[in-house]
Amino acid sequence: MLPLMPKADPELFQNWGSAEIEVFCERQYTFIAPVFDFTTMQHFEWDTLVRMPFLKPLKWGNRGAHGQVAKVKIHPQHQAWKTPLNPGSQTSWFAVKKFIAHDDEGVAIFNKERAALLKFSKENNGHKHLIKLLLSYQIEDSLYMIFPWADGNLAEFWEEYPSKPSENDSFWLIHQCFGLSDGLSKIHGYNQRLPRYGHEEGTTDMDAANRGRHGDIKPENILFFHEPESDRGHLVVSDFTLMRFHSDNTIHKTAANDVSYSKAYCPPEVHQGSNTFIDQKYDIWSLGCVYLEFITWYLQGYDAIRGRYFKTSSGKQAESFQTMRRKEHGGSNDTYFSHVPGPLPKVKTSVDKWLSILHKHEHCSQAIHDFLSLIDHHMLAPLPNDRYSMNQVRDELHMIASKCRRDSNYCQSGIPMGTLMRGLNHLVERSGMSSFQPVGEHSTTIEQGLREVLRGQATWNTV
């Protein structure tokens, strides 16, 4: 059985010349390319002479902080699956991620990401909206992982595909955002999950350190995959490099200044010094930022998110959401919060203004109003304790999605609404009273006060 070595099998080579032996020993590896077993998520170690079953040489993309990714096709006879796939699927593209592992730190990064991925890649623990590790391997000092190839990330999706706010994109958006929160709820370690959605039934109990935090939620770390039965496909959370797991006893013991993060989507607590600790509510803030940009794409288009300016539905040129955030306080900082005089950070005024712009959009349906209110009041809250947990976000989105299925007008019919009317209706709903319609809008001071009440930063006094 190949490979054959002259020293191990001398009788086989006794009549061969040295040149023939050298050529044979080198070329025999052409015939023993490994079969990738995608059923076990096993880690393999291979010799440098072993040929990979790739149909074309790897072309590595731009190097990131921890590695590079190449797009590749794997020979269909070198793929092993539990359920046989059709020929088209077997020859589809895969992503090979190469880790920069020249030292112990690089190896540790690889091991941490692989351990996190394994929690959600096994047959009974997978989830449609979490990326699945197919296989990992090592050749000398180089470490690799193989994943399904995505058609792009969410930011690229927004840029490439125009939104259609008057059609079915609203339901697709809400349904996908629910799926992302359901997958992240699984990472956060909540055992009570909605049945039969995105993951297999019969999920086994997780180990003691089951309270995960993704730690780097942003559009670039959410991938989209085309599906034959869907115009838009589905979204998947990826890049578990910064993910960490804790037990219930240690979930609140990560110091804020020990955390790596993406600046635009980080929550206020990362800037509050060494005495501040972060937990899973970190992910809630970041996800709220992504959701708000997602709705911006739906109502206003990509340029309204990351362009300098964009054209409104009336044809006027206006500053984009990113431009507004950067101009606040006269800097280039595009975070969603600002540190103002006083002990607590605040959501940027530009974010509040943008929420109002979206609520007043002609295509903003009641479902989108409710989604924006979830983001505004329960996700982008400056204090972590005032934010919803991930399973609360998921459950709220599940209710919105369920109502969309029952009522197409709720989902798609645009009903522009002002800030004061929405805020007062929300407060009245909380108190158990019936809703009402105010005569007109009032000052921004009142509107800002309502926002602070709804975010838990102020109280409502009755006289």
UniProtKB/TrEMBL annotation:
It comes from Trichoderma simmonsii. The keyword Transferase applies. Keywords: Kinase, Transferase. PANTHER family: PROTEIN KINASE DOMAIN-CONTAINING PROTEIN, SERINE/THREONINE-PROTEIN KINASE SBK1. InterPro entries: Kinase-like_dom_sf, Prot_kinase_dom. One of its GO terms (molecular function) is protein serine/threonine kinase activity. Residues 55-400 form the Protein kinase domain. Coiled coil: none annotated. SMART domains: S_TKc. This is Protein kinase domain-containing protein.
